[in-house]
Amino acid sequence: MSAIPQQVLDRQKASINTIVAAQSAVFAGFEKLVELNLKVVKATLDEVAQKSQQAAEVKDPQEAAAFASGLLQPGAEKAMAYTKHVYDIVAGVQTSLVKLTEEQIAEGQQQLSEAVDQFSKNAPTGSESAVALIKSSLATATSAYDSMTKAAKQAAEVAESNLNAAANATFKAASDAADAATKVASRSRRSA
């Protein structure tokens, strides 16, 4: 078998392996999301049963207000934890896909570099400047890709930092609201 058809077969095999790896990463993320949601549903059902029992034991309006205010903060904490778990799963899948993409691009750059080297060895006399131009263009494109990759990673880090800051601010606001509701319920109990 000649070298060119073998190279084509090797590239096709590598492409299929990459597609399978990407599908596996996405499916693993989907499995984690399903597992997380099943845990959340089970925990929610258990908590609803427990809270329903507690609600049935409430005797007066002050107890009802205290009970209701006690529901706010744990709910906010659970929503934040759930959001964080979902974000972690999605970020993990994204990281896997980015790694696969980077590997494919690096492999493509290596193959292109090898092809340019092969071309330069077999190029006719007098084409040295054209070969040098091709090599220079390839180096410039590689440098530009590296710069874009670094910028994209920095942007992703900033976005993650902003998401965490927003999540913490939301959690603090929910906590403050729950504390305020608890204080109001305590005051109404004392005044009654």
Automatic annotation (TrEMBL):
Q: Where is this region: Disordered?
A: 173-192
Please name the Pfam families in this protein's record. Answer: Phasin_2 (PF09361)
Biased-composition ranges, Low complexity, are 173-185
**Residue ranges annotated for the Phasin domain, each copy included:** 6-105
Return the NCBIfam families for the record: phasin
Protein name, entry field: Phasin family protein
